[in-house]
Every structure is written in structure tokens, then in C-alpha cells.
Write a structure and sequence with these properties.
It contains one helix and eight strands, in the order ββββαββββ. It has one helix at about 60-70; strands at about 20-25, 25-30, 40, 45-55, 75-80, 90-100, 105-110, 110-120.
Length: about 120
């Protein structure tokens, strides 16, 4: 992959206390003529979906939003907290992309929180 998109280091990283998400196991459910559905695990189809919250002042939000609008819905590299062990999550650069609209919450006169869903490719650090 030549010249990957990289999250600008001068922009705020997601709040570390606000991480949440799901770890998909690649399950595929199929219906059958009986009352019980079949369930299989798709090969190499694992994914991690995250909910990321970014807190920043209004001026930083403008530059951040313009970058997000142009690049973040494509795959890009950004440091995020990933679940490596049960007790000690670590920060590492991951290949992610945003997958939802941005939820905006005003926190004060010059402070906002922006929450967005993201998809992470597991094991790419």
C-alpha cells in the first residue's frame, strides 16, 4: 500500500475513557426449512467496530471536521486503544475508517464532543 492516509499528529486523539465497541466473529446465519437456523463462521471476516469520542475546542473542531470529511471514510492509520489483554489495553497505530455520521454534543462555551463509529482491521499494527 503506497502512501497510506495517516491521521494528522496535531489533531486530538479519541478520548481514552470513552472507548466502546464490538468484536465481530464473522458469524453468518442462514435460514433452513426447519425452525433452527444454521450458523457458520466466515473465514477471515473478523472485524472490530468502535465508538470513538473526540473532545476539542471549537476552532480545532473546524480543521478536524474538514480532514474527517475528506479522508476518514477511507482507510487510514491512527493510534487507537486496542484490546490486547484482559487488563491492559494498549495504544497502537491501526488501520481504521469511520462508518457513521458524527454525533455532536456541546460541552461548554468553547468545547465539543464528537462521537463517530469506526471499523478497525484486526491485527494490523
Amino acid at each position: 500500500m503506497a502512501n497510506p492516509i495517516v491521521y494528522p499528529p496535531e489533531y486530538v486523539l479519541p478520548d481514552r475513557v470513552a472507548y466502546s465497541g464490538t468484536i465481530g466473529q464473522g458469524l453468518i446465519r442462514t435460514t433452513v426449512p426447519r425452525s433452527q437456523a444454521n450458523q457458520i463462521q466466515g473465514f477471515n471476516s473478523h472485524r472490530i467496530d468502535l465508538s470513538l469520542t473526540f473532545s476539542m475546542n471549537n476552532d480545532d473542531m473546524i480543521a478536524w471536521y474538514l480532514w474527517v470529511k475528506q479522508y476518514a471514510y477511507y482507510w487510514f492509520l491512527m493510534p487507537v486503544v486496542v484490546p490486547r489483554t484482559k487488563t491492559d489495553p494498549i495504544m497502537s497505530e491501526q488501520n481504521i475508517r469511520f462508518t457513521s455520521d458524527i454525533n455532536y454534543q456541546k460541552r461548554g462555551d468553547n468545547w465539543v464532543s464528537l462521537t463517530v463509529a469506526a471499523e478497525l482491521i484486526p491485527g494490523h499494527d
